[in-house]
Amino acid sequence: TAVQPLLRQTLWATLPQPMSKQAYYEALQRLQRAHLIQQIEGHFSVAPLLATYLAERAHQQ
Fold first, then answer.
1. Whole-number mean pLDDT of the chain?
2. Which fold has domain 4-60?
3. For the segment 17-39, what is each residue's pLDDT rounded down to a tens digit?
């Protein structure tokens, strides 16, 4: 399965606001530990279906 880049703006738009930077980074770590995202060369990537879900949710808000 191909991976898609996870844009910081897309992830930020799906998280409850306001959120501190610390909480944001903790959320990234939880997603990584759950194998929902992976970090490659300093960039986070997600599976295509999760990327589509996050992008659609960001547009709905």
1. 76
2. Arc Repressor Mutant, subunit A (1.10.10)
3. 777 888 878 888 888 887 777 77
